[in-house]
Structures are given as C-alpha cells and as structure tokens.
C-alpha cells in the first residue's frame, strides 16, 4: 500500500459504494505475507482478509495445505473462490470455532486514516486501519488465540506506518511472543511479517 493508494481511494469517494466489486489486488505486502506463510504455515490454515485470495492460493498450491480465505468483502470471497480457495464472508474471526486452525495469516488494513477523510467503499475497508492504523489489529489479536490450535502460529504483517512498537505491545498483551520472519523496506514504510506463538 502507498499514500497514493489512499489519495486515489479518497478521490473516488462519491462514485464508489459497497456494491461495487472493488477488491485489493496482490501487492508488495501480499508477496511478503506469502513468503512468510510458505516458510511457516502448517496444518489447517486461515487467511483473514484474503482480498483476491492470491496469498491463500499460494499456500494451498505450494504447500498443499487446507486453506480457507475469509473476508468482510463478498466480492473478495468470490475472487478467492475463483482461484480455487474456499472463500468465506466473515468479520475477522467471528464464525470460527475454538482451536479451528493451526496457522492464521493476516495482512490487515493498516493505514492510519483521518476520520474526516474516509471514503466509504471496499477499498477503504482494505486500506484503512482507522485513526491509529490499528483498529482491526486490536480486535484480531484479542480473538485469534481462541481459534488457534495448540502449537499454532499467527503470521501478522505490520507496517512501520502502523507503529511497530505499539503492535508489539498489543501482541504481548494478547499473550504471544513475536519473531520477525521477513522484512522489507520501501521509501515510505518498512513491512515486517511477525510469527506469533503463545508465550
Ligand atoms: C490489505 S488487504 C489484504 C488482502 C490480501 N490478503 C493480500 O495480502 O493481498 C486487507 C483485506 O482485509 C479485508 N478486511 C477489512 N476488514 C475486515 C474484517 N473486519 N474482516 C475480514 N476482512 C476484512 C479487506 O476487505 C481486504 O481484503
């Protein structure tokens, strides 16, 4: 994601609605999450916020693992299904039972967004992490321990724009220890995928 993405989304505010089939397409952050997942994923896999389903597809095809891709955006769940992934419409982890997955991956919407500058379409849902950038990360971390089977791993993409230290503090509060798996710096942000395991 870049600042340009946000500006582009904002300019389209009045023309786009939630009925328009806008879906986040694979970008650098998707590639980093896939790289980490191909290294760390095991067992039953859930990708939260699957977007186009590309990351989930890599895991299913390259690692041969049962992989579910879920997203709040129904157009995303449909694109995931078109890639052969089991695509589910879901708000974060709400429909899943306790201990359901051995690996949970999430490239969250993480851009800090001015509340006066929201644009109300699916691209906002894909990019905006609210004022702090962490408004989806917080409830995700609060609940992910419930759906994670013993010995499971969470792969969470974090941007420096979201506040790396603040995310680490949330991770610790949720009872996990974090270890960086892959990291890459771009002109405006550094992206890190953390592997989280129960402390
Ligand atoms: C940055 S995109 C990542 C897409 C894809 N995983 C990738 O890496 O290319 C974030 C995704 O999270 C989804 N999302 C936003 N809020 C969500 C929620 N409450 N529950 C599930 N998915 C959500 C968005 O629709 C979007 O597809």
UniProtKB/TrEMBL annotation:
Entry keyword Electron transport: no
Name this polypeptide is given: Methylase
Superkingdom assignment: Archaea
SUPFAM superfamilies registered for this protein in UniProt: S-adenosyl-L-methionine-dependent methyltransferases
Any one GO biological process: methylation
Keywords: Methyltransferase, S-adenosyl-L-methionine, Transferase
GO function terms (MF aspect): protein methyltransferase activity; S-adenosylmethionine-dependent methyltransferase activity
Pfam families, alphabetized: Methyltransf_25
Gene Ontology cellular-component annotations: eRF1 methyltransferase complex
NCBIfam families: hemK_rel_arch (TIGR00537), PRK14968.1-1 (NF011527)
């Amino acid at each position: 994601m870049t600042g340009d993405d946000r500006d582009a989304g904002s300019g389209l505010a009045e023309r786009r609605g939630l009925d328009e089939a806008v879906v986040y397409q694979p970008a650098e952050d998707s590639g980093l999450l896939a790289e980490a997942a191909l290294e760390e994923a095991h067992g039953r896999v859930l990708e939260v916020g699957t977007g186009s389903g590309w990351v989930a597809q890599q895991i299913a095809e390259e690692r041969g693992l049962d992989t579910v891709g879920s997203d709040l955006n129904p157009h995303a769940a449909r694109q995931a299904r078109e890639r052969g992934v089991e695509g589910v419409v879901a708000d974060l982890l709400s429909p899943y039972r306790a201990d359901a997955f051995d690996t949970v991956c999430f490239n969250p919407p993480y851009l800090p967004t001015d509340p006066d500058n929201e644009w109300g379409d699916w691209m906002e849902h894909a990019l905006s992490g609210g004022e702090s950038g962490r408004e989806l990360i917080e409830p995700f971390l609060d609940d992910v321990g419930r759906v994670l089977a013993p010995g499971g791993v969470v792969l969470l993409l974090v941007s420096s724009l979201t506040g790396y230290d603040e995310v680490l503090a949330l991770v610790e509060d949720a009872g996990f220890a974090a270890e960086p798996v892959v990291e890459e710096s771009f002109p405006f942000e550094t992206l890190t995928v953390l592997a989280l395991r129960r402390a």
